[in-house]
Design a protein that fits this description.
Elements: E1 2-6, H1 11-22, E2 26-34, H2 55-61, E3 65-69, H3 88-102, E4 107-109, H4 117-123, H5 125-128, E5 151-164, E6 171-183, H6 204-214, E7 247-254, E8 257-265, H7 276-292, E9 301-308, H8 314-321, E10 331-336, E11 344-353, E12 362-365, E13 384-387, E14 390-393, H9 411-429, E15 438-445, H10 450-469, E16 478-483, E17 493-500, E18 506-515, E19 518-527, E20 532-540, H11 551-568, E21 576-583, H12 590-601, E22 610-615, E23 618-619, E24 623-632, H13 635-641
Helix pairs in contact: 6-9, 7-8, 9-10, 11-12
Length: about 650
């Protein structure tokens, strides 16, 4: 890409230019903002010390330099920025606008990527034995030479200027009244990219390989799971067929949380030629209207699970989806569902949270730039959203962060890299967080033979931590592996993780029962303060017959045991926000499942949780139905207890 580099003269912006060139990008111009009438400016955004020597950068690199005087101030100092008149960020906008009028540019190079850059380093200071002085901009640097320079900068004279003579926190800086450039050598290449030849510098490809190698995965490829060719079909109930309407809405509100599921089906009217863009807009309008009817809004959505009938429609759906969000959109997971028999076109499951006084806060990490950290979003979503102690991660697929291309080599490197992305997003959002913070993990793969590989990767990379941390009350969460027809960008694996900011004080419970031959297993990972839980429900094949008992009997057993299990954990059935049912179209029909599940879960008349039905290509071997539940005690109860 053709890049304009923001330069302050400091080490970070200079090093970032080297990384841009190493990645194959072309720097075509430099840009700098300077203070008006003084050297030191107390700016939240820009380094200004040393600005009087920036003009030498243009000649040192052989590139045009664009400069603008800072007219605004630090007015909008929140974590998130919205356009604000007379703010210093607007000066940057006008500078880039001017450059675009003169030079063709596609990207901006900046020596920062994470909004929590300073916070994370301060939190890690004890771990690494560092002194945090300087991380707030107390120390500024000025680069005199760089491999990209044709000439180096020589200081002829300097003077110390005391900016503040405060006896406890004095501030001073160096001023360079006189400097000049000196040729480095006659054989310095004219082409900027050639100036890095022979240098050892890490590129995205190298760092991706290091990330892949850091994830443990040893698999016996001769023992991979094989696709099952026969399925046990649940006895049909009296209610069967496709939905009688083309829009189905499921909603559950419990305290500050609302879970909303909206699914659109092919219209029965053959004259209705609704495009996929129109379908997406109808779905989003339905979500918006439903929320507003409950006193909520789109900005209250913290996480979305998007299921599509055709992954080729991904871009078209995004074009409408993005119109409903501004800054810091919700995190999101996207997969293709096995909708071929149901007629479903798109399904959006939304976790919604309205801020309650004293009940925590919402934080979002929304990184859109290319880096060596983790992939930027490939759609209108954030990498992670945190509500109180719960972290909702976006689906992580194996893209190289610096190129946003799918890593080559098949399922093993893809599994390793995508799992590395999960780790990096967690640790960036919460200092010290790891895979052990995960409470509910849904791993989507595109072939049944990949299940063993993904499961092995997760087990091998949490087992060591598990053994070490169980003595401290730390346990890894529950995992579910499902096979779907396709994933974004043609990925073979995608990790969907819901985690906790504090993994201490969690425990696990298991219940196993038989329902007319079918094996029903419930696993629960719950906080010992009875605030939150994740539940995985597995319905296994009958051991003797091809056709198991009725669906009603299986669900009745399931609901009864779920209620008992939650009671052991100090929770109730009404605390279940959502039950996500992964099923095989060959085994059961969605309308049957919905009717029976709603009836079974609403036995006490207090309303069933939101239900999300996801037809898939295959489940873990031996399973005919899998469900995942997120259980949340109302947050306002937390505030009263504390």
């Amino acid at each position: 890409m053709r890049v304009v580099a923001l330069v302050s003269g400091g080490k970070d912006s200079c090093y970032n230019m080297m990384q841009c060139v190493a990645e194959g990008h072309q720097i075509v111009a430099l840009a700098n903002l300077r203070p008006q009438g003084k050297d030191e400016l107390d700016s939240y955004m820009f380094q200004t010390v040393g600005h009087d020597a920036i003009d030498l950068y243009a000649e040192a690199m052989g590139l045009p330099l664009y400069r603008r005087t800072i007219q605004g101030g630090s007015l909008q100092v929140d974590m998130d920025y919205t356009p604000t008149e007379a703010d210093e960020v607007e000066d940057l906008f006008f500078l880039l606008q001017e450059i675009k009028g003169d030079v063709e540019i596609e990207a901006v190079s900046v020596g920062a990527i994470l909004s929590d850059y300073q916070r994370v380093r301060v939190e890690n200071s004890k771990k690494f034995g560092l002194n945090i002085c300087g991380e707030g901009g107390e120390y500024e640097t000025f680069t005199l030479d760089c491999p990209l320079f044709r000439k180096k900068i020589i200081i002829d004279s300097s003077e110390k200027v005391v900016h503040s003579a405060d006896p406890f926190a004095p501030v001073a800086y160096l001023k360079f009244p006189k400097m000049h450039l000196k040729d480095k050598s006659q054989d310095t290449p004219q082409d900027i990219s050639s100036r890095l030849t022979g240098l050892i510098i890490k590129t995205g490809d190298i760092m991706v390989q290091q990330a892949i190698n850091a994830v443990k995965l040893h698999v016996d490829i001769t023992k991979r799971n094989q696709q099952e060719t026969s399925h046990t079909r649940l006895k049909p109930s009296t209610n069967k067929g496709v939905p009688t309407q083309d829009i189905v809405v499921m909603k559950k509100t419990h305290g500050a949380y609302t879970w909303l599921s909206v699914a659109l089906y092919k219209p029965e009217d053959s004259n209705n030629k609704r495009t996929i863009e129109d379908t997406a807009q109808v779905a989003m309008d339905t979500i918006k209207d439903t929320l507003e009817g409950s006193g909520l809004c789109m900005a209250d959505i913290v996480h979305v699970q998007l299921y599509v009938a055709d992954m080729a429609d991904f871009g078209k759906i995004n074009s409408r989806y993005k119109q409903y969000f501004s800054i810091n959109p919700p995190s999101r997971v996207c997969v293709k569902g096995a909708f071929h028999t149901s007629g479903k076109l798109v399904q959006l499951d939304c976790c919604v949270w309205r801020l309650q006084t004293g009940a925590g806060e919402r934080r979002t990490m929304h990184v859109q730039g290319l880096s060596h950290w983790a992939p930027a979003n490939i759609g209108p979503y954030s990498q992670v959203t945190q509500v109180a102690q719960t972290l909702f991660l976006a689906g992580q697929i194996p893209l190289c962060p610096s190129t946003m291309l799918l890593v080559e080599g098949g399922i093993i490197p893809q599994t390793r890299l995508s799992l590395s992305h999960v780790q990096r997003v967690l640790s960036a959002m919460c200092a010290g967080a790891s895979l052990m913070n995960s409470r509910l993990v849904i791993c989507y793969v595109t072939d049944i033979s990949y299940v063993q590989i993904a499961k092995g990767a997760w087990m091998q990379n949490t087992q060591v931590m598990d053994n070490i941390q169980q003595d401290e009350g730390l346990r890894s969460g529950l995992e579910t592996y499902v096979v779907v027809p396709a994933l974004p960008r043609g990925a073979l694996v995608e990790w969907h993780v819901t985690a906790t900011a504090d993994p201490a004080g969690w425990d696990v419970e298991r219940i196993w029962r038989s329902a007319g031959g079918a094996e029903v297993t419930l696993d629960c990972c719950y906080s010992t303060d009875s605030r939150t839980a994740a539940v995985k429900i597995s319905v296994g094949k009958p051991s003797t017959s091809q056709e198991c008992t009725s669906l009603e009997e299986v669900i009745s057993t399931l609901v009864h045991e779920l209620s008992d299990l939650l009671s052991v954990c100090g929770l109730e059935l009404q605390d279940v926000l959502v039950v996500r049912i992964f099923y095989l179209p060959e085994v059961a029909e969605e309308q049957q499942l919905q009717t029976v599940m709603e009836g079974g879960l609403n036995q006490d008349g207090r309303g069933a949780p939101a239900l999300a039905f996801v037809p898939v290509s295959a489940l873990e071997p031996g399973q005919i139905l899998t469900a995942c539940c997120w259980v949340q005690r109302p947050l306002e109860h937390w505030a009263r207890e504390t």
